[in-house]
Design brief:
Blueprint (H helix, E strand, L loop, with lengths): L2 E5 L2 E4 L4 E8 L7 E7 L6 E6 L6 E3 L7 E6 L4 E6 L8 E8 L11 E2 L3 E6 L1
Parallel strand pairs: 2-11
Antiparallel strand pairs: 1-3, 3-8, 4-5, 4-9, 5-6, 7-8, 9-10, 9-11
Length: 122
């Protein structure tokens, strides 16, 4: 079974950028669609971005569209989330997740990482 480990979180000023990474282990990584989700304290987890098996189909939540970019490198078993123009509302714990389905959905993910904390100061 695929295992996921996130990294790259930290403290950043408003308007700055961060790049999150998700390292995957397993023999069938390239067959999984991947997604990024985030959760702030006291709030429900929400969808951020998704990418299909090949990387040719990418989609985003309206709140991050135009600022965040999801990508994957199947040869390296890595998924990335480039975050630009960050603001205080982006503060949350960001988790990557995997599904054997072709499309990422909130309730359809099979495997989750533990998450990495992103804090944006105003």
């Amino acid at each position: 079974q695929v295992q996921l480990v996130e990294s790259g979180g930290g403290l950043v000023q408003a308007g700055g950028s961060l790049r999150l990474s998700c390292a995957a282990s397993g023999r069938t990584f390239s067959n999984y669609a991947m997604g990024w989700f985030r959760q702030a304290p006291g709030k429900e987890r929400e969808f951020v971005a998704g990418i299909n098996w090949s990387g040719g189909n990418r989609y985003y939540a309206d709140s991050v569209k135009g600022r965040f970019t999801i990508s994957r490198d199947n040869a390296k078993n890595m998924v990335y989330l480039q975050m630009n123009s960050l603001n205080a509302e982006d503060t949350a714990t960001y988790s990557c997740a995997a599904t054997r389905l072709e499309v990422v959905t909130r309730d359809g993910m099979d495997i989750w990482g533990k998450g990495t904390l992103v804090t944006v100061s105003s």
